[in-house]
Amino acid sequence: MNRQGRPSAPGTVSDQAPKTFTGHQGLRLVEPLIFEVGAPDQTGVDLPKPKGGVNRLGGLERAAPVDLPGLSEPQVVRHFTRLSRKNYGIDMGFFPLGSCTMKHNPRLNEKVAGLAGFADVHPLQPESTVQGALALMDQLAHWLITLTGMPGIALSPKAGAHGELCGLMTIRAALEARGDARARVLVPDSAHGTNPATAALCGYVVDPIPADERGRVDLDAMTAKLDSDVAAIMLTNPNTCGLFETDIVEIARRVHEAGAFFYCDGANFNAIVGKVRPGDLGVDAMHINLHKTFSTPHGGGGPGSGPVVFSEALAPFVPPPWVVGGEGGFTLSETTGPESVGRMTAFHGQMGMFVRALTYMLSHGADGLKQVAEDAVLNANYVLETLKDVITASFEGPCMHEALFDDRFLKDTGVSTLDFAKALIDEGFHPMTMYFPLVVHGAMLIEPTETESKASLDEFIGAMRALAQAARDGDTDRFENAPVFAPVHRLDETQAARKPILTYQEPVPAEAAE
Ligand SMILES: *Cc1c(COP(=O)(O)O)cnc(C)c1O
Predict the structure, then answer these.
(1) Whose CA is nearest to atom 8 of ligand 1?
(2) Is 401 in the pocket of ligand 1 (CB under 6 A)?
(3) Which of 37, 422, 476, 507 has the CA that lies 20 to 30 A from 296?
(4) Residue 416, number of CB atoms within 10 A of its CB
(5) Distance from the CA of 34 to the center of ligand 1, in angstroms?
(6) Nearest to residue 170, comparing CAs of 286, 255, 265, 252?
(7) In angstroms, what is the span from residue 160 Cα to ligand 1's centroid?
(8) For the segment 117-159, what is each residue's pLDDT rounded down to a tens digit?
(9) Does the domain made of 366-487 have the CATH classification 3.30.457.10?
(10) pTM of this structure
(11) Is the pLDDT at 289 greater than 80, yes or no?
């Protein structure tokens, strides 16, 4: 029972273990909501009552209580520390979330990003006082241009999706400049949801292209849709099935022949960094998720960073600012051609991410970055090869940086992809990406990244194999209510996403409710 005399939320601790008097399980503590711990009439500070004084609020003073929980400092510290210990992150264990590239964030990056000259600068400081920061942005831009083989760059977009928006706005500006209004953008069925969303936000009609039986873009279907009304194709390479688009050079040629542009979603650049330059494949614009390929933290949805690189054809339309080096040092140029799309952000982008990403590049060097891609691909293929006799792989042949499985191996077991992923939580792993991409049924997309050791991969593979066996053996109990060892059990995730309850409502006392 909590303070209000309500029973604790069902499933706050495992039902499997013996019941304790307190509800806690050893040092795994139940944590109520902060509103249940605190009370509006309590306070953590003890200030003397003001001695009179003139009321200057002119009748606008608050009439009702603020309804914030009152707690002392140690209560607040304990509340948030306990919550933080229920969190699972890459520093706690394996995080094979496909498409997200949850690699280790080296501590060296944090150390460098914390240096006063980077951490304490203000975006409105005079340029003469931030020459080091500007030099760093210039050097990062140089690395990204070199690694992608694309001459134009915008550093400022603040996430992959924001980079997509930057890229498509630039493509639209280029088309408008030549008086060529076009209405459609081609997007493969396997695309990340942000691709069609971006195209729609830019005012385009999204025209889907199916995948072929090899999990790649169906070249004939794409060609049939290419005409003078198509502004661009948005293609991910390697694609979200973890496969390299083997026809990519031919795709680029046909897209250009139709007068359209080639936007590449570069979220999977981790698989090819140092090995393949997207510019050589005919790409016109591509965002790079620094928080994936270049190891900056994902940080619970932000701050990310999604610089975009551009081909020669799009360079005149790229948004400012640019770092320009000259005799007197570096300046941030706002000088845009009349055709530029204009600024994407108020300032210059995520400085802390720039520092971390460049630190990562310099600590690996050019040869080390190449090895990043090789090791990521090796790890994913190790997972694919050691699991595919018991878990159905969706496509034949080796994969790139992530391995895609589907739910055919669960046929007639009564266990779903969701159940399987939840059981994985009980085994101590963050689940893989589920039900994405949509081109296969009950997808399980596993991305181990290059920073996992063979020992951690083997432990994960062991758990996956054991669960597959349990499903085949009819051990459905293990799956039905999973996770049972997590702080909360099976959640209604659809309801939580569709109808989130964002404010605390005082529970109605039982008598009043009757
Ligand atoms: C992560 C991802 C994105 C979006 O990037 P954000 O930084 O999360 O906005 C787009 N496409 C693919 C394939 C991705 O994996």
Answers:
(1) 160
(2) no
(3) 422
(4) 16
(5) 33
(6) 286
(7) 5
(8) 999 999 999 999 999 999 999 999 999 999 999 999 999 999 9
(9) no
(10) 0.90
(11) yes
